[in-house]
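FAQ

Q: What does a record look like?
A: Structure on top, sequence underneath. For example:
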């Protein structure tokens, strides 16, 4: 059993989602991706806070009883028999005959779990490229509408890169599914929180680690050119954790190795999880 849909635990292959489910017809919903280490969801409360924030931003009413949602998560984790896994949680505006206007029906809640593999590339770092940020004005909402993200990431992948770094008005915003950081003169710099980026949970962890370690954490935008002049670059997400970036397009950064500050952050992050 590795999936859940509106009250039923089931295998994903057996799961039939009604044709009038608004998640797939309109992308009318929000989601979270949560990593579970040794049976314990990492920063679960922060993820649930963000899920409710996203839902509120699109006028979607999730059951205010957080413990009911958490119970479902833990029950699915337990039924899966997995201990190290990624838990995907999605809430949509429900099942109703197709109509743009909000229906009067219960929201749909679905979840899936799958085991994760630690990406080995993390030791040596990965490459990134730039791509125009073609998304909408409300990127702080973790919405199901990921078409611009998917197109940018696919393009980067076809060119041999792990991630596309999105650029809006000449400045880096974030990755298609990650937050982006550069290190210059031993200080970390990253895009400030605004409607233009997702408030990453891993970003919160990195900020805490940096402040505790006395590493300056400067929330300020930078340009692709400034990024090319950086001492170190890394990106973060729930599934990539803290990923060193050692190539930006043709340019090899830090002689192709993860930098000292990136490695320090990675070490301290491993102690938290
Ligand atoms: N993506 N920015 C975007 C656009 C993202 O989609 C994500 C996460 C992040 C990093 O957030 P966090 O640290 O909370 O995972 C930043 C998830 C992993 C996904 O879409 O699968």
């Amino acid at each position: 059993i590795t999936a859940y849909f509106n009250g039923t635990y089931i295998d994903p292959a057996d799961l039939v989602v009604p044709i009038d489910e608004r998640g797939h017809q309109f992308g009318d919903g929000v989601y979270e991706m949560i990593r579970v280490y040794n049976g314990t969801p990492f920063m679960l409360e922060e993820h649930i806070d963000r899920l409710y924030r996203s839902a509120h931003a699109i006028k979607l009413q999730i059951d205010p009883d957080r413990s009911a949602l958490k119970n479902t998560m833990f029950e699915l984790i337990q039924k899966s028999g997995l201990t190290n896994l990624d838990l995907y949680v999605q809430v949509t505006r429900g099942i109703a005959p197709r109509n743009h206007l909000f229906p009067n029906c219960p929201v749909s809640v679905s979840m899936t779990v799958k085991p994760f593999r630690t990406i080995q590339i993390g030791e040596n770092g990965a490459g990134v490229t730039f791509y125009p940020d073609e998304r909408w004005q409300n990127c702080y909402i973790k919405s199901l509408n990921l078409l611009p993200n998917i197109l940018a990431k696919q393009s980067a992948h076809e060119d041999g890169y792990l991630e596309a770094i999105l650029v809006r008005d000449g400045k880096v915003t974030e990755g298609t599914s990650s937050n982006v950081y550069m290190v210059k003169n031993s200080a970390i710099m990253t895009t400030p929180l605004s409607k233009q980026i997702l408030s990453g949970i891993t970003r919160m962890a990195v900020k805490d680690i940096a402040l505790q370690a006395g590493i300056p954490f400067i929330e300020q935008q930078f340009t692709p050119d400034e990024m090319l002049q950086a001492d170190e670059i890394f990106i973060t997400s729930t599934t990539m954790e803290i990923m060193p970036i050692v190539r930006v397009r043709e340019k090899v950064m830090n002689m192709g190795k993860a930098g000292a500050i990136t490695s320090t952050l990675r070490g301290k992050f491993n102690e938290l999880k």
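Q: Is there anything notable about this one?
A: The chain has two domains: 3-115, 120-272.
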